Amino acid sequence: MTPAVRAGRAVLRVFLVTWFLLPLVPLVLWAATETWTGATPLPQKWGAQGFTDAFADGGALAFLRSLALGCVVALLATPAGTVAARALTLRTVPRPRFVSALLIAPVVLPVFAVVMGLDVVLLRLHVPGELGIVLVLAVASLPYTTYLMRLAYSAYDFAFEDEARTLGASRRAVLWRVRLPLLAPGLAAAAFLAFLVGWSDYIVTLLIGGGRFVTLPVLVASAASGTGNEPTVAALSITALVPPFLALAAVGVLRRSLARPMSRLTARPTPGNAFHRALPTRGAAA
Amino acid sequence: MSAHLTLRGLSRCYGSPAPPALSDLHLAAPAGSCLAVVGPSGSGKTTVLRLASGLDRPDAGDVLLNGKSVLDVAPEDRGIAMVFQRPMLFPHRNVLDNVAFSARVRGASRRRARIEAAEYLDLVQLSGFGSRHPAELSGGQEQRVALARALAAQPQVLLLDEPFSALDAALRSQMHDLVRRVRAALNPTIVLVTHDQNEAASLADCVAVLSSGRLVQHDTFDRIYTRPTSLVTARQMGGRNEVPGEVRGHHHHSVLGSLALPVDVRPPQGTGVLVFRQESVQVTGATDPGADIHGLVKAVQPTGPRSLLTIEVAAGGRPKAEEQSVKIHAETPPGHCAGVGARVGVRLAPHALAVVPPAPQEDLHRAQMAAGQNRNVGFPVPRRALSD
User: Fold this and answer.
1) Residue ranges of the domains in chain B?
2) Which of A59, B3, B212, B289 could form a disulfide with B156 if both were Cys (CB 3.0 to 4.6 A apart)?
3) Chain A to chain B, count of Cβ pairs less than 8 Å apart?
């Protein structure tokens, strides 16, 4: 790598980091503001008024609702996507291309149009709003979970299951002791994306819930529609960032712990083991 | 701890346009014996193991252990363990826990399972490797662990699906020693699928030759080697000499002349292909009075310390205008100095001759295709020994 290329990459890296972090700067400033007229570059008076107001507006309950929604959507969409991905990988479904297209459809179709139609149907069927939201969001996150689990299955060797069976493992034991551990990184990533769909949804929650099911995004939007609420909006938004970051960190830790033996090898090659395969280092794998 | 394995009339077809992977296969492996299944790629060898282990169900036929059908017994309850061509060590477990897997799924405590597993690691001479991760092992070590893991399941029958084919020659012979030690210690019934005739020779009591999903011959290695009953068997075992001709009485008549057949070789009268091992062909001097035939060395191909000579033998004493000749192959010991172009005498050991029926054209083509794919043979099987 020439110095020019190295310098170019460094510049690009700085640019990308700035690109991602810059929008957070006003958010952080506003969240810590008590008074800021905009006449000065920084707030005139610092304070936690934003968080206090957010809590008073029902922020805690909205936070819990969003958390529950994200978790339930992940719990529904991850197994469903896994089953779909397995069937598509093993080609045990008729017309796999058609089924694939069908599973991608929720991403392609405009959510707004679909939900407007579905809302009427769900009302007629007397489906409770919360259930309706959960079902629609689970379907909406199915393309992501299916896609990630298809990736996971494409790297998965079904011969491990054959081997386990001949070693005395029942189908159930194969599931718990072989398939799930080997698919765990993919499952974690799929669950994370499904959680995000539930966590950050606004349109479906608002339209199907009829505004009565107040989640964090709904609360943020209603606060943002008023004036002078910038500290509250910023406080809610920053709070909304916490769970995804924690989940992302958890997924990272899981992947790292599964990859640990590899890194142990690269750190300390075993002596006298001249035949061991050249393994990619962590950097190359990432 | 070992069982008599019987395969009775097994047939398996994967989809109708494809020819059956296996048709009406009868095969038995007595308790404690080692049966080698050999055959070209796609001959159904692996299908045999998958059906025996229960990973796949036959369309027809039965699998019996000690005379009892196990067709409706799930693979995990059959007491048949399998080692695949790839080690398939679980990447989320260390070596010891890989070996402890079968004890764990059968409900043993982790402590108990690990103590047992350590004994099996001892058996494959990998004690002390228990805490390693599979990725830290060499190919040979991985396959040892796979073997230990299969043995730890205490199988009545151990199925080995070309387990050593990815290893180099030295490692492979170490693994053969290991299998012999395992047989001495635990005596499981072993069915070994292999491409490698030397592996079959050094490990198996009996050899079954498969071709296109059918059993072609099942006999001791020695008889398969010297008394093949078909061209497929002769070629599969690496035999290179095929001389078409005719059987009249107790003699085979061909370009090589009239050759007396051994007393235990009594093929039907009429067309027949004379086959004999290149190892049994003795190359002598051109003036050797004891030589059965004479010929011209056309090619010398070193195969390690020994060399493979291609010798052209012309039809002797025939008044016909067109000259007929046949190429035969001889493996010579180190230090033999017949070069290309030399005239040599050839002695054929009389007990080494056998006669097999000529191959139908279609089968011949398929055998050639299969032989071309068969890399472990080490050299291409001759397209045709006869040239005109």
Assistant:
1) 5-222, 239-380
2) B3
3) 92
